[in-house]
Amino acid sequence: MQNNSFEYEYRESLKSLADDKKITQNQLDHFIRRGIQSISPTDDFDLKSLGKMLPRIVIGASDDYINRMKVPYQATSYIAANTKAPDDSYIYKIPGKNAGGVVQLSGGKRKSGDNAFASINRILIGYKAIMVSAVNLMANKNQIWNWQFFGNHFKESNLDIYEDLLKLELIKKRSKNFYYIVIARSDKTFKRVNLLEEYRKNEIAVLNPNNKIKVIFVTSQSGYDYAVKTIPESDLVNYIITGEEFVIYKAMLTLRKKYSVDIMLNDGGRIMSNGVRDAGLLGEERVTLEPYPGNGLIPNEIDPSSILGKKGIGLDENEVEGTILIHSNEIGDEKANVYLYPLDEEKII
Fold first, then answer.
1. Distance (Å, rounded) from C-alpha 186 to C-alpha 222?
2. Using an 8 Å Cβ cutoff, are 315 and 14 in contact?
3. Which terminal residue of the chain, N or C, has fewer Cβ atoms less than 10 Å from its own Cβ?
4. What was the pLDDT predicted at 101?
């Protein structure tokens, strides 16, 4: 759903960034070619309650651009809390806490802004595929992190929002061939996270055949040889083998060509999404910024590996390095932000 006025303002803001030497001419040309999608829940889908909370939902590439790509268009979905540290950093996890300490990041309770934004990200970006690392899969083995995991919080707090999310899912019509994609680089990965042992005990929700979720393991030859003996290929399980070495680009080409995945949610954790970013294949970060959650909820000493961003390090001086901030929805004291990375067009088009 395109909005000409918003598109015009977006292009003008890009030109201003180029004039100020914050992005290069090549980056300007790339972002303009790439286009944008602007969705109004109220005007486009008559979802008035959702539209009050999220008046505009933005995706950082047009349908036409995504259709021309050789790999899936990928976006992440994170929550990050301000630390009040001198460098004004934001952290996306608390090491050692259940589910990465997501509840602590939002002040000790699930907040409506992140629940809505995370639900939207799964409905609009992750309706064909969600990609996770084997490490994250096992850390949350009992959960299926679909939109209901977040949206169900509205059943009691705001039933109108919940019903709008249900309607939006029906409008998007989740793909019949929805895939849960699991990245396990080699046999060592499978062994390190005890994936096969937990599979034998039927402890992994997405691999429970009763849940009827189609899973694709992306791995090297050694990973395939090790895993397939215990988890054979079937109607619900497939493998993408990238060769003797693990090569993410090869896997993405196969996902697009063989499985027709043109857009997906990269929900696998920071190490994995950073690897995809460094390969020039990550389109955007969709992040709910939370205020400082309060004393005692986050560590006084911040683990550097938990930092998602710091104010001023983006191309346009936003919080996420290497990105431009293209849209922000303020929901109370939360901000639902969309940050774009330049894509490597030699690889993707």
1. 6
2. no
3. C
4. 85
Rounded (5°) CA angle 265-271-273:
25
Amino acid identity, position 229: K
Q: Which of 111, 104, 110 is nearest to 298 (CA)?
A: 104
Distances (CA, A) of 98 to 26, 54, 102, 136: 43, 29, 8, 12
Pairing of β 263-266 and β 73-82: parallel
Which residue ranges form the domains of the chain, and what is each CATH number? 4-348 (3.40.430.10)
pLDDT of residue 3: 62
Q: How far apart are CA 198 and CA 205, in angstroms?
A: 10
The whole-number pLDDT of residue 102 equals 84
* Dist. CA 55–CA 59, nearest whole Å: 14
Q: C-alpha distances in angstroms, 116 versus 49, 91, 231? A: 11, 20, 35
pTM of the predicted structure, to 2 decimals: 0.95
Backbone φ/ψ region at 185: left (φ over 0), alpha (ψ -120 to 50), beta: alpha
C-alpha to C-alpha distance for 261 and 179, rounded to whole angstroms: 9
- Profile the chain (349 residues) by mean pLDDT over runs of 10 residues: 80 98 98 98 98 98 98 98 86 86 89 96 96 94 88 95 97 85 98 98 97 98 99 98 98 98 94 95 98 88 92 96 98 98 98
